[in-house]
Amino acid sequence: MSHNSLYRWVACITLAIAAFAFGCSKNANQLQEKPLRHVKLLIDWKAEPTYAGFYVAKARGFYRNRGLDVEIIEGNGANTSAQIIGSGKEYFVGSCSGEATAIARSKGVPIRSVAVYYPNVPTVIYSRSDTPILKPADMIGKRIGLIDGSISVDEYRGIITANHIDRSKIHEVGVGFDAAPLLSKKVDGLMNYEELTPVELRLQGFQIEVMRFADYGLNAYSLNLIVNDDSLRENGDIVRAIVDASSEGYAFLRQDPKTASAIFVHLFPERNPNYIQQSINTVARLLGTGPVGAQTRGGWEETIAALNRLGLLDHKIAVDDVVAKEYLVP
Amino acid sequence: MLIAEHISFGYDGRPVISDLSVDCCRAEIVGIVGASGSGKTTVLNIFSGNLKSHSGSVTVDGISPREAAQAQKIGYVFQSPALFPWATVEANVSVPLKLRCFHHPSSSFSGSSDNKNSERRVQWALELAQIQDAAQRYPHELSGGMKARVALARAIVYKPRLLLLDESTTGLDDIAKENLYKVLQEVIAETEAATVLVGHDLSELILLCDRVYVLRRHGVSSRIVHCEMIPFKRPRGVDLFDDPSFISTRKRLREELC
Amino acid sequence: MLNSRETRLSAIRRRPRVRSLWVLCTTIARGISPVLLMLLKIGCYGAALWAVWVGGIRFLHLPPYLVPPPASVLASLEKLPRFYLRHAIVTMQEAGGGLMIGFAGGFVCGLLLRYGGPVGRALNPLILASQVFPKEALAPILLVFLGFGILPKVVVAALISFFPVAINTFRGLQATPVAHEQLMRVLGANAWERFWRCHLPFSASHILAALNVCATLSIIGAVVGEFVGSSAGLGHVIRAANADLGTDRVYAALLLLGIIGSLFYGATLLIEYIFFRRFTGWK
């Protein structure tokens, strides 16, 4: 055998051994890592700072640490979320609102709340500073925009009733989700979550005032985490892991909104970073001061009572129908 | 070849033709003349199997017209040429040869069914109709007379036993008509098909036919009122129009028509 | 009578090397001139659109939260090309899938309406009903059974696309001239041959016209589906941007939808030209 062919043989054998060793080590690594369980988490609207806690939990590895590979899917409203999670086909866990959870449960949808992030409704009426609406009585004689099919309309009814306002003295106008009617002075007040459109408008230089529903007699749980009844029984460990990780995400957001904002901006570079920062600051405040994710019997009783007064529940329900007991805080 | 006896037909209870009897033998050309709206096209549609007579009987080569059509024993040249606008002249003429019934044992085609025979058959039909130079042209590139000849070539390519022509020279100028008369006589002499021509042009029918039936409205429906034998020798040209016996035959038929 | 300059020029052109170069240049110019002409047309349309847009903002005093200036829309596109491309591809996939399924389903329905006899007649009111009710009413059912992925948008796009195809197929198959219908019977054609050689070619114009229309309808369907529930697609971009007054993103998405619509329409014309122009009398 000549020298050249000998070197060629040696080179080939060396390469083969190296490739084999690399392959083995890779396989060994894979064997050592436990596979993550894939879960689809359905948030009830588009990717807004309201749901930043979930995105922060994913980015910081809180789900991964608990053996979960979570995919966050954007939804189309709390009621739709409740229906989809109730059917349990592709999605068995996701966000919703306390009101939509109780309403769906009264219609027989098999879902339960496992955590509450907004202990109060974040809905506000926002208005221009030249015609401010600072309290419910300021709505008299003014034009208020109502979004068809939105729960905010029922919340508005609740405020009217709780504050003894004559509804016939308010001019109600059907509108969409955008702020154009307010800015073009077609209406005097619109409704939205405090952390969303009002923040954006202020950043764009508009003088905006807000009236919080939670300050005027509407006490109900809002942003929460729900799960399908069957999955609660069959995948209790996964549900626990998701609840703990999501709550950890929101707790991180409350503690360090700046970093949470940076994470959200990195994930959604098309959004205005200033808006994200301001909005997350508001979310942090809306999370309240108590333990993040905590839900109490008293809180749910108030929520159910408010919905009963508005006539939104098909059947009478109790707290134990709506909540997974093991996730109630005494 | 064609025997129609006492046939009647009407649309929605309104009688159109009644008690009509026509016959036509092999290589014979028979004409049916009538005024507009007298039911000439209806008669041809009954002979071709498109319509079924309400009474009487029609046979083509001993079988019903519908069965004869399914066996490609009938050729029909419509008043409008009915060419396929997306196909060349050659493709239009070859359409009948691509149909399944062309290869059926009961059809007129007695040869084998490979492509070469079909190509030769198409070429033969094109040459007979004197349209072979335009084989690769599309219908929108042809004159009225050329379209009529393509329709004729398509009608004879499968050598039908019965050939029906429905006012095929409508809209053509005199030169084109003269050309078509010549081609028609050559085609029928070559194919020996029993031919039935309908029209309202007396001169044309006397020139082309061996016998002419006169279809006239009688009350609410039309019926055959006269049958004239045409004794002129073939081939006949348009110079026959000035012949005194041609003129007198024409005058006779005209009196029967009115 | 030629002047001396023209005589000198023609003399120069007649020299062999110059002549070859001249032939080469004119050949290239003839080849690329249609492309240059098309680019020039696009440029003119773009300039006209820009002028109308800017003029509208200025003279109608349109605020930026309603209509952003074109410069900010282009800046958004330039800043986030991958973002828009990713969402545009999703919408194109949904619209393309919906168009193909809608076209196939519509074609089959058209055949049933024409040849199905009592089955076809029974189908007619169902087809009409499917078009009358708003697709958003289907949303919860679609989301529950098909999820938030690409499938429900394909279904909505298919539902919107299939009706014009079904009706045009039906009417087209009825549009065979009587003489041709009679001709095929006299020639002894069976039902399949009458359909394949006569009815279908005559209906080509109708069916392809429906395809042209559905090219844009399918995009509308995909966007409607995205409005109902999605995490991706240009409809999703519009919905999300509306929530935080991101009108530059809304208009950027609309611009891209217009371009996608033109591409789809052009593609259907290309299909017609390549495969069916002899049946439709292409001009």
How would you explain this protein's 3D organization?
The complex is a heterotrimer of chains A (330), B (258) and C (283). By secondary structure, chain A is α/β, with parallel strands linked by helices. Chain A has 14 helices and ten strands. In chain A, the strands form three sheets. In chain A, strands 2-1-3-10-4 form a five-stranded mixed sheet, sandwiched between helices. In chain A, strands 8-5-9 form a three-stranded antiparallel sheet. Chain A has a two-stranded parallel ribbon with strand order 6-7. In chain A, helix 5 (98-106) crosses helix 13 (297-309), helix 10 (236-255) crosses helix 12 (273-286) and helix 11 (257-267) crosses helix 12. With 258 residues, chain B is α/β, with parallel strands linked by helices. Chain B has one domain (2-257): P-loop containing nucleotide triphosphate hydrolases (Rossmann fold, 3-Layer(aba) Sandwich), CATH 3.40.50. Chain B has a six-stranded mixed sheet with strand order 5-6-7-3-8-9, with helices on both faces. In chain B, helix 6 links the parallel strand 6 (162-166) and strand 7 (194-199). Helices cover 84% and strands 0% of the residues of chain C. Chain C is built from eleven helices and no strands. In chain C, helix 4 runs antiparallel to helix 9 (191-228) and helix 4 (81-115) crosses helix 10 (234-243). At the A-C interface, helix 4 and helix 8 of A face helix 6 and helix 10 of C.
Point out poorly predicted stretches of chain B: none
**CATH architecture tag of chain B:** 3-Layer(aba) Sandwich
Helix content of chain A: 40-55%
| Helix/sheet category of chain A | alpha/beta
The dominant shape of chain A is: globular
* Total of DSSP H or I helical runs spanning 4+ residues of chain A: 14
Main-sheet strand order of chain A equals 2-1-3-10-4
What does the main sheet of chain B amount to? 6 strands, mixed
Q: What number is the mean pLDDT of chain B? A: 88
Main beta-sheet annotation of chain A = 5 strands, mixed
CATH level-4 homologous superfamily of chain B: P-loop containing nucleotide triphosphate hydrolases
Tally of discrete structural domains of chain B = 1
The overall pLDDT average of chain A reads 89
CATH fold-level assignment of chain B: Rossmann fold
The domain count of chain A comes to 2
> What is the CATH C level class of the largest domain in chain A, in words?
Alpha Beta
List the strand order in the largest sheet of chain B.
5-6-7-3-8-9
Indicate the radius of gyration of chain B in whole angstroms: 18 Å
Q: Overall 3D geometry of chain B? A: globular
How big is the Rg of chain A? 25 Å
CATH level 4 superfamily of the largest domain in chain A: Periplasmic binding protein-like II
